[in-house]
Every structure is written in C-alpha cells, then in structure tokens.
Amino acid sequence: MPEFGPYETPEALLRDQLWRCWLAVEYQIRQRWAMGALPRTAEDGATAAWAPENVAGVFRAALAEYRGEPLLGGDDAGASVVGAAYRHHAMLTDARVAATLAAGIHLPYLDLWVRFELGYAQRLALNFAVMPEVDPKLVIAYRYLTSDPTCRGLDARLLAMLVYDSSERRADLSRDLAPTSPLLLYRLIELDETAGSYDSVLFRRLRPAARLVQLLAGDNRQLDPQLSDVAELRGGEVAALFPEPMIARAAAALGSPEALLVLQGVRGVGKRLLLQVAAARIGREILLIDAAALAALPAPQQRPVVRSILRECRLLDAIPVLPDLDDALVQQGDRSELPPFVAQLAAEHTGALAVTLGRDRMPRLDFRPLVQFALEVPPLDDRAALWRGHVPTLSGGDAESLASRFAAPGGVIALAARAARAERPAAAGPPDLPALDLAVRNQLHDRLIRLGRRIDAVHGFADLVVDDETAGSLKEIVGALRERRKVRERWGFRGAAGVSVLFSGDPGVGKTMSATVIARQLGLAIYEIDLSRVVSKWLGETEKNLGEVFDAAEPGHVVLLFNEADSLFGKRTTEVKSSNDRYANMETNYLLQRLERFGGLAILTTNLGGAVDPAFRRRFAYDVQFTFPDPDMRTELWRRAIPATAEVGDIDFEELGERFELSGGFIKVAAERSAFQAAATSEPMSTQGLVVTIHRMYRERGKLTAVGRLE
Description:
Layout: H1 10-35, H2 52-67, H3 79-102, H4 108-115, H5 120-134, H6 137-146, H7 156-162, H8 167-176, H9 182-185, E1 189-191, E2 206-208, H10 211-216, E3 231-234, H11 244-254, E4 260-264, H12 271-281, E5 285-289, H13 291-296, H14 299-316, E6 318-322, E7 330-332, E8 335-337, H15 340-348, E9 353-357, E10 370-374, H16 380-390, H17 396-405, H18 410-423, H19 433-443, H20 445-449, E11 452-455, H21 468-490, E12 499-505, H22 511-522, E13 525-529, H23 531-534, H24 541-553, E14 558-562, H25 579-597, E15 601-606, H26 614-617, E16 622-626, H27 631-641, H28 653-659, H29 664-680, H30 687-700
Parallel strand pairs: 4-9, 4-10, 5-6, 6-9, 12-15, 12-16, 13-14, 14-15
Antiparallel strand pairs: 1-2, 3-5, 7-8, 11-13
C-alpha cells in the first residue's frame, strides 16, 4: 500500500492516532527539558521537586513563545529528533485521513469528524481526550507534563501545550471549550462536574464520551450504553400490513428537515412499527426515547441526557421518536403541558421528529410544522393475515375465527403468538386455537387489573331468574356481540364497532350476575372496574384512567362492567358555575366519546335509572330494565338459594316468596345467614328459622316490620 494511501481498517487509524498523541506529548516534554522548565524525575521515578532553575526555564519558555522562537536551549534533550518525527507522522496521518474521506471509505471515528463538522484543532483535542481511554499509560505522561500527580486525563492546561500552543491559537481554546462548541454541545467531551464549580476550567478534566472508544474500534451501529435506560434503537426492514399510501406519507414526513410527525391510536396498533417501516424506506433508523423516564429525572440531569440523545441521533443518522408522549405530560393548572426537554429536543435536532399518542386529546405541539394522522385497528381480513403470519401453521378458518373474535392490533397479536409458543413444550408443536385464544386474553390483563378486578363467570342462562322480556334482551346482546364484526365490517352497517349496555334496577335484582352470564356465553373474561380508582380529583387523571381501561379492553377480549356508575355517568351540569362543573362535564363527554368508539362490550349498571343523563342514555344500544321479582320469581329464587346438600326441614318456599318482598341478592344473604344459625344450633333449616333471620334483616335496616321491599 502506498505510504499515503487511505485507512482501510479502524485498527490502522487507531494505531496512528495513538502514536501521534505519544509523539506530541514527548515532544512537549523534551522541549521543556531543554529550556529547564520541567524538572527531571527522581531516581525512584517520582517527579522531582521544582528548583529555581526550573522556574527560570518557565520564564525562558514564555519569552521564546513571545518572540516566536522554538522552545530549545543549548542542549535540546532530543526535542529536535522527536519534533521531526512528530511532524512527519502528523503529515502522514493527515494525508491518509484525507485519502480515506476522498475514497468514500467509512470509518466510524472519521465519520464523527464529518457529521459534527469538527475543525482541525477540535479533532486533535478529541484525540487527546480519548486516547488515555485506549492506552492508560498516557495518563502518566500527562501527569508529568502538568507536574500534577492528581491529573486523571486531558484538561485545558494540556490542550494549551499540545494543541493551542501559541498566543494566537489560545484565543480559539476558549471558543472550542464553550458550551456551544460541538465538542461540548453534543457531549463528545464534557467538563468533569465532580470538581467544585469554583475550580478554574484549566484544572477540570475534559472527559470523553465512552462511546468514542467504540467508534475507534469500528463499532458505529450500537447505541451508547449509558442511554439504555431512556432510549432504544430500532431499524431494518420488517413485515407489516400498512397501506402503501400511509407508509409513503410517513416516510415523506420523516425525510423532511423540520416536520413533526404525530401518530395517534390505541396501544399495540402499530404506531412504532409504522415509524420503523417508514424510516427504513428512506434508509434510516428510529431512536425511541422513553419520555416518561426522562421526565422523571431531576431537571439538572435532563439537559445532559438530551445532549447525548442529540449526539446519538447524528452519529447513527437516527430519527428521534417520543412514543406514548401523553404518559409524560406535566399538569400545569387546568392544562397538560409537555415536559421542557421536548422543546429542547425539537429546537436543537436538525431533522424530523416523531411522537405517538394513545389518547384522543393532543397536547399543544406548535413548535414545528405538524403532520398528523390516526392509526386504526386493522380490518378483519388483515387481522387474519397477521395471525397466519405470526403462526404459519394456523388454518385459514382458525385465523379468521381469532380475527373475528378479537379486534386486536398487530402488537397484541404478535405478543400473543409469542406467549402461546413460550407456554407450550417444544415437542407439543406450534400453538393451537385454544392456546392462542387464552394468550390474547392474558396480554392486557395487567393493564386492566390496575383499575379493576376479574369476576368469575360461573353462571349460565339457566341460573338466571328474570322475566321473559329481560331474558330475551340478554340473549339478543349475546347474538349482537358474536356477529358485530361481520355486520359492521362485511355487511357494511354503520355504527359503533362494539356494544354498550345499560342495566337499570333495584339492588340485588341480578344485574351483575346477568353480566357474568353474558361474558360466559361469549367465552370472554369480565372485569369490574373500580370507580374509586378511576375517578380522581386531579384534572385529566380520570380521563387518563378511563382511556387506559378502554384501550386495554379495545381488542374485545374482555367485558367491562361499571357497577353503580351513577357518580361517573350522572347528569351533566347545564349551568356551569365553577371549574368543578366544567371538569365534570369534560369527563362525562369524554366517556360518551369513548363508548361510541369502543369496539367491545361495556355494561353499566345503576340502581337509580333517573340519575343517568338522558343524552347519555341514548348512546346505549341496549337499555335493559330489571324488574323487581314477583312472588313466583321470588319462590324460585328461594329454591335455588338453598343447595340440595343442605340439612333442610320443612320449608314453605311459596310462603316465603309471597310474604317477603326481597330481591335475589337479599334472598341469598338471608338463606346463608339462616344456614349459619341452623348449623350453630345443630338443627335443620326451616321456614321459622328463615323468617326470624328476615325480620332481623328488616330491623337492621331501620324497619319496624317485615313489610315492603328491603333496600
């Protein structure tokens, strides 16, 4: 290879740059020996004490610099030989670097120089900062040159001798160590903050980013490990079922030098995947930034981390993405504001920026030209194709069955397929339909359990004691849920993708039990949402919790049950007199919107039918009125409340049903309390024992006689 040929390997570049540093340090040391401005080491290797002639040598060195003369005395201590070797080696490395860049050979360390537009002195400064990380022996030479045994690496004193070695060049030193210099702006090097703020910058270590050693070794496709807690790099071609116009539009936005691309949609719908596909279309990668984790850092730590993220985006040619940005919003009065670092990132990053949102409401994003569109759950045929893509052994019929049953986005389908494979022994083969069915339900269980609890669905229609009209409505609801996707997606009927149901009636008439019967008939889990955890006094928190519930249940793998929902779904205030009224109306309106778009089954129960807003009531596809049980129904409820295995004497069920106006819930409680009493007295259950228990229950609720309905 010619002497001035290009570098072809990172190792060759590293070797030459390291040797250049060693020659430069040795040359400076020998010059100072020649001037007597640096004491020789003692016999034990330690730095000798300074003598008057050493101080005189410092003055001679200053005068020589002023006159523009070489720092040499009568005996040059070998400085001329080392100086000639340094200049020849510097000329050689500069020529080879220029040849490498001209030949289009990409070495990560040289690419860094180009991407950050580093000047010649800045490149040298970077070399002197990073080379002690490659060869720790260089620190010993640094300590000797500065006559400072506490020196741990490069500082401004050394730069003044090694790079900015004249009065003219020292004017550039302050510029290249300014916060706006690319060296510090992008944290290629940073001032050691462990020293006291009162310490001069001359004595503070210029610490290189650990990532620079990786670049010198030739590794340029890995994210800085120090950012692993707040960022993730994704790239490459991936299979995805997005419409071509959507990919093209996203790719165009990501290729813009200043656009802000905003994708909205439920979790798991594929917002990040679309960004990865679009970035790959233009030969780029995306850098996913955990906005919530970054926002949780103390303010003084956020800015340096953002600087490092900006550095990585330029090094890796990656597009910064803030997924689920709404999780990091900061509450300011009656508004949700973006964390401060978002504006910093948008202002200092040169190129496109993308964010994803899971909620309907979009925060104020007016700092860049906006490109916005929403992602919906894939249609039925695409969902079937996704199932076959993730589980190739799945039959077309089974794939269509899963797609029809669960309106699951691609992310949930992928996770469910992986989970089902993980739970099956290797010898059992690929997962079957029941395993995949169960895996889908399990994916979002953790998100729902935070705001509710799962109810056992053990009853069937045969266990219900309701009038014929109510039974017919419940069976119709089951049929609607089973065929809703076909009617909406294939038959073309417009309307809500899911079904919203209101159950009204007195306490204990079977509203909750009926909801579990419907869930069992559909083969779905049912979750009762705990309104005490959903409703919050903090502005926007109730909406956030409701959004999380509906997003988790959106694929249709569960039934949502809101028991005693009067407080949340009551009448809206028409005359707004305070901020509380305005916020309450906002929550109700948000719930109305989510119910209309919810693709699953939501059942709301109320004991006070008149307390529900009429406009809200009209949103329900089914408004089922549970009547109070008549005597015949109460008789049947008494028979079912006492198991056949119980020790029973003479019980007149007809008399109990005719005599006492109890709902099914109170009948169950009375039967159980009477059983406890009978067991305690070693007697069988009887009509008399039940009557005594019923009278006691009436008195406990402030009634003097056992007449009328027990409430």
